[in-house]
Amino acid sequence: MQQQERARSRAPAIVAYVLTVNSTNPASGAAITATLADNNSKSSGTSSFTLSYNAGITVVLTAAATDNGYSFVSWTGCTTSRQLLHRRPQCQHHRHGEL
Asked: Which sequence spans correspond to the domains of the chain?
């Protein structure tokens, strides 16, 4: 019984990170989708909103190239990002767990 209790206490805690999605010009209302639903089953929203993912998950965010007359310019805070001509701009975000 003591070995089972020790084994349970050694299991690493699951670390969750909050990913905040904001926009500027417009300051709100930009539609963003994520390739993977978060811990709360949410996979899209309009800025500003948050998503929660466990450590080690890679998420790709996608925005429209234009939205309500505004043109997409760039991502910040991404692990990698790309904007392909005539395609939707994408941001890949990856958080490693810290134990």
From this structure: 13-94
